[in-house]
Design a protein that fits this description.
The chain has 200 residues and is of the alpha+beta class. 25% of the residues lie in helices and 39% in strands. The chain has a 6-stranded antiparallel sheet. Keywords: Signal.
Length: 200
């Protein structure tokens, strides 16, 4: 008596499960990367104007549920936009040309159900949180240095970031915010090289 074997073929359902599992494993790093990049400086440039050099930038900063809840409960949130400009030196540390910052205060008014964005003595009111965040994260014509502070044709190293300033929170919240990523919201530094006398 001769025994014979026939290759066993997986059922269509099992085959589909295998493909779905493989797809999930492949997509997991991509999903993680997208989540990690929720808070980023999407775009930044330095432009030469008549009175000096200005920065334009677009930033994506997601408050997350913890900060949003605190805001709606009456806690004002403070954000800092930071810019640095340096000139590289091969023989020593880079020389800092400029260090600038803008401080924002975001608050919610329950009676009027409106959001207030303050920069120094200037205030804007918005009907939605998205509107206030868009205004804060769209940087246009921010003056950083005078024309004579940079040498045309020389490359400079620029860096820009935005972060939530936890040191400005009420004291009980400062303790909660220590080492807590839900409160320490911010972008990484975006670094790029800028050639003076050009648009970037």
């Amino acid at each position: 008596m001769t025994a014979s074997t026939t290759p066993c073929c997986a059922s269509p359902i099992e085959s589909l499960r295998g493909w779905l599992l493989a797809l999930c494993l492949l997509l997991t790093p991509l999903i993680a990367h997208a989540e990690a990049d929720e808070n980023v400086v999407r775009y930044a440039e330095i432009v030469q104007g008549d009175d000096g050099y200005v920065v334009n930038a677009d930033i994506d900063l997601d408050l997350g549920p913890r900060l949003t809840e605190a805001l709606l409960r009456g806690v004002s949130l403070h954000f800092v936009l930071e810019f640095e400009l340096e000139r590289g030196r091969w023989y020593w540390f880079d020389r800092q040309i400029a260090a600038r910052s803008i401080h924002y205060r975001l608050s919610y008014h329950a009676i009027t159900r409106s959001y207030r964005l303050s920069v120094g003595g200037l205030h804007q009111t918005f009907d939605s949180l998205d509107g206030a965040l868009r205004a804060m994260q769209r940087i246009r014509n921010w003056h950083i240095v005078e024309l004579d502070e940079l040498e045309a044709g020389v490359s400079y190293n620029a860096a820009l970031r935005m972060r939530h300033d936890t040191s400005r929170l009420p004291r009980p919240f400062q303790v909660t915010a220590i080492g807590n990523r839900d409160w320490s919201v911010g972008t990484d530094w975006l670094r790029w090289t800028f050639l003076a006398g050009t648009t970037r």
